[in-house]
Amino acid sequence: MTQLLPEADRKTLLPPLAETGWAAVPGRDAIRKIWKFRSFSEAWGFMSRAALVAEKLNHHPEWSNVYNVVDVTLTTHDCQGLSRLDLDLAKAMDRFAPGAEIQRDHGEPVSCLCEIHARKA
Amino acid sequence: MTQLLPEADRKTLLPPLAETGWAAVPGRDAIRKIWKFRSFSEAWGFMSRAALVAEKLNHHPEWSNVYNVVDVTLTTHDCQGLSRLDLDLAKAMDRFAPGAEIQRDHGEPVSCLCEIHARKA
Amino acid sequence: MTQLLPEADRKTLLPPLAETGWAAVPGRDAIRKIWKFRSFSEAWGFMSRAALVAEKLNHHPEWSNVYNVVDVTLTTHDCQGLSRLDLDLAKAMDRFAPGAEIQRDHGEPVSCLCEIHARKA
Amino acid sequence: MTQLLPEADRKTLLPPLAETGWAAVPGRDAIRKIWKFRSFSEAWGFMSRAALVAEKLNHHPEWSNVYNVVDVTLTTHDCQGLSRLDLDLAKAMDRFAPGAEIQRDHGEPVSCLCEIHARKA
C-alpha cells in the first residue's frame, strides 16, 4: 500500500515542482503539467522515455496527447492522492523535456495541496 | 486542404467502423473508440504502432491513456470534421489491437454523422 | 552483483527456452533468438514492449533490427554470462511475439550452456 | 525504384554528414554512425523518434542497440547502395541526438563513397 504524501513533505517538495510548471488539479489531490513540444516526434520521444520510467516505477500517468501537446496528471490510485511515486515520476518527466514550452494557464497553485486535513475537510 | 468526408462515403464507410466499436462524439464531427488492454505494456505496444502510422499519414489522434486504457478521438483539424484520413487511421488502429476489450458505453451511433447538412443545420 | 545461473537451473530452465527458438551463441555464455515479423510496425511494437520490461528489470538486450527482423542476444555483463535476468527477459519477450516467425538457422543447442565448468574448461 | 545517389551529390552531400560522424562502411555502399547516450532511456527516446521518421520515409535503418549505444547503418536495398533516402534519414537522426557522444573509431572516410565507378570497379 502506497502512503499518502505527508504534509511536511508536501510543503517542501511541491513548491519546486510548481516552479517547473506543475499545478494542482481543482478538486483532486493530483498535480498536472502541460508540455508543448515543437512536433509530434518530439512529444513522442518524451512520452517514450516517460513510459519507460512509469513502467519501472510501476506507477503510470493519466496523460493525453494531441499532436505536439502532452498533458499529464499524476496521482496515486492506491492511496487516492499524491504519493512519493508522483513526485518521482514528475521529476523524471521534467528531466526528459528541458526545451519544451510549458503551458501555465490551468489549475491552482500547489499550495492548496499542502495541507491534507484542510483538503479533506 | 483535406476534404470533409462526403455523405455517400459516410453512409458506406462509418457503419463498419461502428461495428468494431467506434462511436460518434456528441456535438463534434468526430469518432471515438476506447480500448482496454490487459496491461500498460500491451497498451503501449498498441500506441507505439499507432504513433508510426499517425506520423506516416501526417494525421494524429487526440488520445489519452490511463494504465491499460487507451481512448482515441479522431477528427481532421484542417476541414473541421471527419476526413478520409480519420478512416485510414481508425482502420489501422483496429488492426493493431485484435485482442483488446472494447468499451462501448460512450458516444452516439455513427448514423448521426452520416448527414453533413443535417449535422450542420 | 548478479549471480551466474547455476548448472541445475540451466538444465531445467534452458531447454524450454530452446523449444521457443532460443539458441546458444557460439563461444559465449549467451542465448540468441531471431524473430521475423510481418512489418516494421509489428517489429517495433514488439521492441517497444521489450524496452519497457528491460528498463523495469534494469537488464537490457543486445539487439539489432532490420525492417521486420529483430535479433536479440541476452547475457549478463555483471557476471559475464547467463543469469536469472536473461531468462526473465527471454520469457517476457516470448510473450510479446506469439505470432512471429522464428529463424532457427543459427547458433548451437542450449545444451552446450548447461555445464558451467565444461564450458569454461 | 529508388535511384542510386549520383556522384555529384555524393561529393557535396556526404562530407557534411562525415563531419557529424557518419563514416563509410568498408566494402559496402553504406554509411554508419555510432551514438553513445547517457542511458538506455536516452537511447530509446532517440530510437523512438528515428522509428517515426523511418516509417514515414518508408526507409528503415539497420541498427543495433546495447544499453546506451545505438549503432546505425544506412543503405538502400532497392538500389543496392546509397540513395537520397539515406541522406534524409541520416540528417533526421542527427537532429534527434544533439547532445550524444559520437564514436569515431570505425569505418573509412566517406570520400571512398564519392565515386560510384571507382567503387564498383
From TrEMBL, chains A, B, C, D:
Identify the InterPro entries for this entry: PCD_sf, Pterin_deHydtase
Q: Which UniProt keywords apply?
A: Lyase
Name the Pfam families on file.
Pterin_4a
For molecular function, the Gene Ontology terms on record are: 4-alpha-hydroxytetrahydrobiopterin dehydratase activity
Can the keyword Lyase be found in this entry's annotation?
yes
Catalytic activity field: (4aS,6R)-4a-hydroxy-L-erythro-5,6,7,8-tetrahydrobiopterin = (6R)-L-erythro-6,7-dihydrobiopterin + H2O
Does the record's keyword annotation contain Nucleus?
Answer: no
Q: What is its EC number?
A: 4.2.1.96
Q: So which domain of life are we looking at?
A: Bacteria
Among HAMAP family, the record links this protein to:
Pterin_4_alpha
Instruction: Identify its protein family.
Output: Belongs to the pterin-4-alpha-carbinolamine dehydratase family.
Q: What PANTHER family does its record include?
A: PTERIN-4-ALPHA-CARBINOLAMINE DEHYDRATASE
The name of this protein is Putative pterin-4-alpha-carbinolamine dehydratase
Please spell out the taxonomic lineage of the organism that makes this protein. Answer: Bacteria, Pseudomonadati, Pseudomonadota, Alphaproteobacteria, Rhodobacterales
